[in-house]
Amino acid sequence: MKFENNLAFAEALDQADDIKDLRQQFIFPKHNHKEFIYLCGNSLGLQPKAAKEVLNRQLDNWANHAVEGWFDGDEPWMYYHKELKKLMAPIVGALPSEVCPMNTLTVNLHLLMVSFYQPKGERFKIIMEGGAFPSDQYAIESQVRFHGFDPKEAIIEVFPRDGEDILRTEDIVAKIEENRNEIALVLFGGINYYTGQWYDMETITKAGHSIGAIVGWDLAHAAGNVPVKLHDWDVDFACWCSYKYQNSGPGGISGIFVHEKHFGNTDLNRFAGWWGYQENKRFKMEKGFVPEAGADGWQISCTQVMPMALYHASLQIFEKAGFIEALRVKSITLTKYLEFVINQVNIELGYQQYRIITPEDFNSRGAQLSIIAKEQGKPIFDGLVANHILGDWREPNVIRLSPVPLYNSFEDVFLTGQALMKITKSILK
């Protein structure tokens, strides 16, 4: 498509958008009665208008049924997570039995590593991307220490080549092969939070399995953003938060994936709790843990009904959209258009003030573009916020902008480019 940097073109793209009406399902933040152009769904998604209704319904269930709400009413809490499982599974390319909503992301990462990081002999190392989100770094460091290893010896980090911003798949595969006899676990983020790079998950998973390692993924920035096929790619485990692209609210409930090939593996360690016990015998209160079949067997504490309700509100919008495949088509064009208008700013300025470090190939990125300003990056970001355009700033020098196909428009992107041009000229005059 040949893009044009004018309002009429952006409006025409919006008119042709088959899912444009989904925008009306969300609440946009306002300041001085003016709505923000919200480009920060990579950090926290917008609130669905249905969130209050869904949450109030569960509050009413609590009010009307009290403890009997676990088994009475239209949506008994005992089984509420099963409805979510059906809607979660298509988003990550899984079977419903392979996913479960529970806890929060880093808690789930720890719980899954209890099962899937099993160092033995010389095979004790974990390989990950350099510059992973700090929570992943801290979780992995503490896990290897728990097993008695020094993180400096047990963790292999793969960094971009000198002078480059993103990782090459061949370098990741080569590093896996180089350490083939020592790696117990390959654990990457699906999309890097800083650069916005979407790693070649299928290729990396195959590379990890080829040397006999377990492969897991943190999908915090990938789930609900790009199409992943966890089951078909033979991924061993994964987890994600739901409050970014899946709009479940701040600190919203997390999700896990465990491939069905592991369901019958009795050698897996796990930290057990009552809610992960075999469901049809749970209330017999018997001694000796027997896990529920599937991913549900990794549950520990009882269903978090209110956070699940908020997640449910957003998942139903994904269902209306045709899940991630339909959203991805729009997302690719939205992000390409954002790339175009940023480059148009550079052209009008006559030099490269803005450098996009996110891969140009749409197969290697999601909705996020990470941008480095040659000069005055933080004042320019602050200027965008002052002009009701909300992305986010990541130290030391990156502006992240993420047009989300559920609720962002092509007009949003065009107006962002116009504001960026105006602010840049004002600050750098």
Automatic annotation (TrEMBL):
<feature type="binding site">
    <location>
        <position position="105"/>
    </location>
    <ligand>
        <name>pyridoxal 5'-phosphate</name>
    </ligand>
</feature>
<keyword id="KW-0663">Pyridoxal phosphate</keyword>
<protein>
    <recommendedName>
        <fullName>Kynureninase</fullName>
        <ecNumber>3.7.1.3</ecNumber>
    </recommendedName>
</protein>
<dbReference type="InterPro" id="IPR015422">
    <property type="entry name" value="PyrdxlP-dep_Trfase_small"/>
</dbReference>
<feature type="binding site">
    <location>
        <position position="274"/>
    </location>
    <ligand>
        <name>pyridoxal 5'-phosphate</name>
    </ligand>
</feature>
<comment type="similarity">
    <text>Belongs to the kynureninase family.</text>
</comment>
<feature type="binding site">
    <location>
        <position position="106"/>
    </location>
    <ligand>
        <name>pyridoxal 5'-phosphate</name>
    </ligand>
</feature>
<comment type="pathway">
    <text>Cofactor biosynthesis; NAD(+) biosynthesis; quinolinate from L-kynurenine: step 2/3.</text>
</comment>
<comment type="function">
    <text>Catalyzes the cleavage of L-kynurenine (L-Kyn) and L-3-hydroxykynurenine (L-3OHKyn) into anthranilic acid (AA) and 3-hydroxyanthranilic acid (3-OHAA), respectively.</text>
</comment>
<dbReference type="InterPro" id="IPR015424">
    <property type="entry name" value="PyrdxlP-dep_Trfase"/>
</dbReference>
<dbReference type="InterPro" id="IPR010111">
    <property type="entry name" value="Kynureninase"/>
</dbReference>
<feature type="binding site">
    <location>
        <position position="218"/>
    </location>
    <ligand>
        <name>pyridoxal 5'-phosphate</name>
    </ligand>
</feature>
<dbReference type="Pfam" id="PF22580">
    <property type="entry name" value="KYNU_C"/>
</dbReference>
<feature type="binding site">
    <location>
        <position position="243"/>
    </location>
    <ligand>
        <name>pyridoxal 5'-phosphate</name>
    </ligand>
</feature>
<feature type="modified residue" description="N6-(pyridoxal phosphate)lysine">
    <location>
        <position position="244"/>
    </location>
</feature>
<dbReference type="GO" id="GO:0030429">
    <property type="term" value="F:kynureninase activity"/>
</dbReference>
<feature type="domain" description="Aminotransferase class V">
    <location>
        <begin position="154"/>
        <end position="265"/>
    </location>
</feature>
<keyword id="KW-0378">Hydrolase</keyword>
<dbReference type="Pfam" id="PF00266">
    <property type="entry name" value="Aminotran_5"/>
</dbReference>
<keyword id="KW-0662">Pyridine nucleotide biosynthesis</keyword>
<feature type="binding site">
    <location>
        <position position="221"/>
    </location>
    <ligand>
        <name>pyridoxal 5'-phosphate</name>
    </ligand>
</feature>
<comment type="subunit">
    <text>Homodimer.</text>
</comment>
<comment type="pathway">
    <text>Amino-acid degradation; L-kynurenine degradation; L-alanine and anthranilate from L-kynurenine: step 1/1.</text>
</comment>
<dbReference type="InterPro" id="IPR000192">
    <property type="entry name" value="Aminotrans_V_dom"/>
</dbReference>
<dbReference type="InterPro" id="IPR015421">
    <property type="entry name" value="PyrdxlP-dep_Trfase_major"/>
</dbReference>
<feature type="binding site">
    <location>
        <begin position="133"/>
        <end position="136"/>
    </location>
    <ligand>
        <name>pyridoxal 5'-phosphate</name>
    </ligand>
</feature>
